[in-house]
Amino acid sequence: MKNPQLRLPFFFLLLFFPLSTSSNPTTILFTTLGRSRYGFDIFSVPFTFSSSSSCLHSISIEHHNELQLTDGVSVNYNGFFPSNSSSLLYISERNGYCNVYLDHLSLPQSSPLRREALQLPSRLQSPLLPTPSSSSAFRSPPPISMKDRPSLISGDRLIYVSTHEPSGSPRQSWVAVYSTHLPTGRTRRLTPSGVADFSPAVSPSGRWTAVASSGARGWSGEVEELSTDIYVFHTRDGSARTKLIEHAGWPCWAEDSTLYFHRRGSDGWYSVYRATITVGSTLSVASVDRITPPGFHAFTPAASVGAPGIVAVATRRSASKFRHIELIDLRGGSNVYVEVTRPIAPYSHHLNPFISPDASRIGYHRCRGGGNGNPALLLENIKSPSPEIFSLFRIDGSFPSFSHDGARIAYVGLPGVYVVNSDGSGGPREIFSGNAFPTAWDWKRKGVIYTSHGPEFASESTRVDIISITLPEEDDDDENSQPIVKKLTTGGENNAFPSPSPDGKWVVFRSGRSGHKNLYIMDAVEGDSAALRRLTEGPWSDTMCNWSPDGEWIAFASDRDNPGSGSFAIYMIHPNGTGLRKVVHSGDGGRTNHPWFSPDSKSLAFTSDYAGVSAEPISNPHHYQPYGEIFTVKIDGSDIRRLTHNSFEDGTPTWAPFFLEPSDVAESLQGMERCLFDDCHWLTIQAQLKQLTPAKGC
Ligand SMILES: *[C@@H]1O[C@H](CO)[C@@H](O)[C@H](O)[C@H]1NC(C)=O
Ligand SMILES: *[C@@H]1O[C@H](CO)[C@@H](O)[C@H](O)[C@H]1NC(C)=O
């Protein structure tokens, strides 16, 4: 073993916290799709525009003067300039939770160097809402929730989205708009109960707030477009709520009588639209114009009172595989498009633009790229809602599981199976190069990991087999010692999701050998040819099984309520085939998956759409299942608790009987390519597209 001294703390903990006592703190570890690639920082670039009457209007972007405005360490996104560009409001995920920050920037007036803003000693950063350690006298919402889309009005009132209040019904988003008076912390919910409001935008006068809302209609599982409508209400108290525009998202105001938004048209393209509004005691729409034509996607518009007729948008065009920011000049007879980010960073996705009210800068976020000396995280600590019960981490990998002494973690890379020390030392080692999922360690035989080899999300007849991988002994210093791979199933009929019994004798798994995916139990050492018993039977899919540490139960996900529908609930059954019962479901059409028992066998961690989607999916990189959050539930189905709050896809939790100190663990091996994430897969660019309209100078 390479780092014996680093293993000691885990032994220590095991000695002091015997596994049989339920009150000892434990650890939950889960996966977030693409997260380790999201080194988001907020950048901005100055621009000027002229408006002489004698020639065409023109816009000039100072591409060489792009500045990084945020810290280069945290995940920072969705910026907003409250007044001019001397301060920046944004979302930051740092120290294990999400908060709204306000930075005071001293931007250089002329010819700034790139990144100069970062080096300024006068830079002040402050979280605007309570932190997990701040006093409870502050009457703001509890710190652990997702915050998003902040606006600051009158210098001291923050309007933003938060997920801290349960929606009250399964599969209804917890996203609602709140207003917090910063000096007192007094917070008011502006969204009616039972409703989800996304993407709030405050009008220039501050009087109105527009949101993208699904109203009382709820959510029916959409993962691309949420089919929202734009509602407006009084920013003051949420009153006079009115549906303004059907089928519209991401509102932004140029003035109180002009609102831009995006919509995916029946032609398949995302386009930006402008609504002209009649302002009275309520608002009504006088007209709606489509601003961007079919042929490319334009979305997440941003306007500025200081730049009437100029709109910033994100686009996907055939000229680039990346999402870029452009300005659209609507002041002439025809729209003129001006590229903002492609000349600066052509091979990065740029998201969610914003313009300063004085129309001097355009902001956006993108991955900052590597080379800044910040180590990638193997384990990112997330603030636990119950720190006395478990610490909470996300891992840079999928389907993690701990070895039973807590010293090592196995995970899959799709492809590849990896093992890494829990303290990150030595970096990950690939122990199997094929595509495999998930991972589970044998309880008795040290260094034995079960997985299944083959494609995931495949049909019953697909060749997938369960294998065990035996790692070389830890004191084996022979560099050439290789893991021993043994195939435990023989038929190849989609045998997957192995989970061993605590006595080390059996493995439960799902198999498509009957034509349907059901659960079977086989001999852990010799496989299905030595001993095989069928555990469940029926024309549906039983899968993702997990054997309880006390040996009494096997939890699994099943679509037996509605076979083939894609809707999964979590069930439990005794290993002898009795006692079948449903534990938890998020409702008709819902998805509750990947159950994993707590060390005391009394609860399950799982991933689910129970809290719906927390942001317009198009405002993020691609997520197959943007609703995925991690929850726990008692095995009697009571006490459902939400552990994660974000707009990303969280999944595949594991729950271990020891306590990892709640702090980040860096990956000691570097060099992994950062910033490699996909844009939303449904933003497909068809052939035969219009080229950019070149900007004409005067
Ligand atoms: C920007 O706005 C702030 C706050 O309103 C003000 O104090 C500051 O002087 C302004 N800066 C510039 C360059 O206009
Ligand atoms: C099946 O297993 C459960 C849990 O161990 C036990 O309580 C029950 O008596 C068993 N039933 C049969 C028929 O063996």
Characterize this entry briefly.
Residues 1-22 form the signal peptide. This protein is mainly β and 698 residues long.
Ordered list of secondary-structure elements with their pairings:
Blueprint: H1 4-16, E1 26-32, E2 40-50, E3 58-61, E4 67-68, E5 75-80, E6 87-94, E7 97-104, H2 116-119, E8 124-127, E9 147-153, E10 157-162, E11 176-181, E12 186-189, E13 197-202, E14 208-213, E15 229-234, E16 242-245, E17 249-255, E18 258-264, E19 270-279, E20 283-290, E21 297-303, E22 310-316, E23 324-329, E24 336-339, E25 351-355, E26 361-367, E27 377-382, E28 390-395, E29 398-402, E30 408-412, E31 417-421, E32 429-432, E33 436-441, E34 448-453, E35 465-470, E36 484-487, E37 496-500, E38 506-511, E39 518-523, E40 527-534, E41 542-547, E42 554-558, E43 569-573, E44 581-584, E45 592-597, E46 603-608, E47 629-634, E48 641-642, E49 650-656, E50 665-666
The protein binds 2-acetamido-2-deoxy-beta-D-glucopyranose (NAG) (2 copies).
Task: Summarize the structure in words.
The protein is mostly beta strands and 698 residues long. The chain has a domain at 377-474 and 481-666: TolB, C-terminal domain (Neuraminidase, 6 Propeller), CATH 2.120.10. It has two helices and 50 strands. It is elongated. The structure holds 2-acetamido-2-deoxy-beta-D-glucopyranose (2 copies). One 2-acetamido-2-deoxy-beta-D-glucopyranose binds at residues 552, 574, 576, 578.
